[in-house]
From TrEMBL:
Subunit structure: Monomer.
Gene Ontology molecular-function annotations: thioredoxin peroxidase activity
The keyword Disulfide bond is annotated on this UniProt entry: yes
Annotated EC: 1.11.1.24
Domain Thioredoxin: 1-148
Protein name as catalogued: thioredoxin-dependent peroxiredoxin
Function comment: Thiol-specific peroxidase that catalyzes the reduction of hydrogen peroxide and organic hydroperoxides to water and alcohols, respectively. Plays a role in cell protection against oxidative stress by detoxifying peroxides and as sensor of hydrogen peroxide-mediated signaling events.
Any one GO BP annotation for this protein: cell redox homeostasis
Active-site residues, Swiss-Prot/TrEMBL: C39 (cysteine sulfenic acid (-soh) intermediate)
Length: 148
């Protein structure tokens, strides 16, 4: 089974989070930027459904290259109820292979591709969702978790 890359990142409060902190099933989702329309839609949908994840014993983390200050503002503005991790140099994004060519408003560019991983406590990847739709994301992930 494929392993999720080892990581050591700060959350919005400057606390270090690593693979060793994962105690059960974890959803780690990569998103391009705090406070942008698609990312806000995705984050708020997760916020509104966090109880469903918690009831299944699942922890949720968002990851982007934004600073912890940016993450703090995003969390406060949107009343988010899960941690956001800082991947400023895209080290984890590159290791997880979520950087690539994408179409942004008709222009091909290289950047972070919205991707979600479901991993177990041993960092085994149970499911990878590529090119995630911000509006359908939570529904797809919860459906997978309930089947598993």
């Amino acid at each position: 089974m494929e392993k999720f890359p080892k990581f050591r990142l700060e959350n919005q409060n400057g606390e270090i989070v690593t693979n060793d902190d994962l105690s059960g099933t974890t959803v780690i989702y990569f998103y391009p930027k705090d406070n942008t329309p698609g990312c806000t839609t995705q984050a708020c949908d997760l916020r509104d459904n966090i109880t469903s994840f918690n009831d299944l014993g699942v922890t949720v983390y968002g990851v982007s290259k934004d600073s912890k200050e940016s993450h703090q503002k995003f969390i406060e503005k949107q009343d988010l109820n899960f941690d956001l991790l800082v991947d400023e140099n895209h080290e984890l994004a590159k290791a997880a292979r979520v950087i690539g060519e994408k179409n942004v408003f008709g222009k091909l560019t290289v950047g972070l591709i919205r991707t979600t991983f479901v991993i177990d406590k041993d960092s085994n990847i149970l499911k990878r969702f590529d090119k995630v739709s911000p509006k359908k994301h939570v529904e797809q992930v919860l459906e997978f978790l309930k089947e598993g």
